[in-house]
């Protein structure tokens, strides 16, 4: 008769004796019956007392903090509600959104160019792109913002020279470079230096064999970049670039130093007049939290879309390599 070992609920049970005939009353039948009995036993879960205590303490702490914030008269929630959708605050919010979108759009375009220049075989392109990254990463953002705002002191006139003499056109820099566009250039060009490094590392992460397989199939270098390399690199780059986008959106509050009417500057203008500092800062804080939440949701769905397209691209590249 076979011997059956069972180490409790969920443990393995194997016949140690010689298996008998696989029929009614045999060893195999007995082993299956015992396994069914074990599988029907209730599976006990260990009680992690320490983990439970920590969870309860955290819930109590968070609830206490929420009640404290809700009942603290210093926040003046009625004033927050009054100003939350005021025209001045909404105009500042719109400027924050457009400033972030334009700066990040400029940063993405420049960063793709800089990243490809750094991966180029041309030493001049590598040197120029490396100098660009070094220069813009070396200067604090606030200093760069003030420099762009005062660029008219360095170059009073912006002109396009005519090769046959004179200028095609010339403009006063102070009329061309307003505070708003100074901020777009400062944020966009510096963000491009950081984002280009993310793009470069993402491009290097794509397996080299996929490029070789696409070349063997007769694809041009541009098609290889557009259809094989870039979609996969973007999937890798989306999380860090999304973090950069959120940081850039919050960093736009620095434009208050050059009097651009963004969200923070708008609430500052209001509380300088009404002296309701805390509730107006809460208005700005809540709007920033809403913007970050929207960007985070967008990142989630973008990762899902790129995940599906990258899986398709990888299968396509695999079929190409499998061809004789």
Describe the structure.
The chain has 324 residues and is mainly alpha-helical. The chain has helices at 27-39, 49-71, 77-84, 87-118, 123-138, 141-149, 151-154, 173-176, 179-205, 208-216, 221-251, 263-274, 277-322; strands at 157-161, 167-172. A two-stranded antiparallel ribbon has the order 1-2. Strand 1 (157-161) and strand 2 form a beta hairpin.
The side-by-side strand order for the widest beta sheet comes to 1-2
What is the end-to-end distance? 57 Å
SSE string: HHHHHHHEEHHHHHH
Instruction: Provide the helix percentage.
Output: over 70%
List unreliable stretches of 5+ residues: 1-19
Overall average pLDDT: 84
Main sheet attributes: strand count, strand direction, barrel closure: 2 strands, antiparallel
Cα-atom Rg, whole angstroms?
A: 31 Å
Query: Which structural class best describes the helix and strand composition?
Result: mainly alpha
What's the quick description here?
The protein is mainly α and 324 residues long. It is built from 13 helices and two strands, in the order H-H-H-H-H-H-H-E-E-H-H-H-H-H-H. A two-stranded antiparallel ribbon has the order 1-2.
Task: Lay out the secondary structure.
Layout: H1 27-39, H2 49-71, H3 77-84, H4 87-118, H5 123-138, H6 141-149, H7 151-154, E1 157-161, E2 167-172, H8 173-176, H9 179-205, H10 208-216, H11 221-251, H12 263-274, H13 277-322
Antiparallel strand pairs: 1-2
Helix pairs in contact: 3-13, 4-5, 4-9, 4-12, 5-9, 6-9, 9-11, 10-11, 10-13, 11-13, 12-13
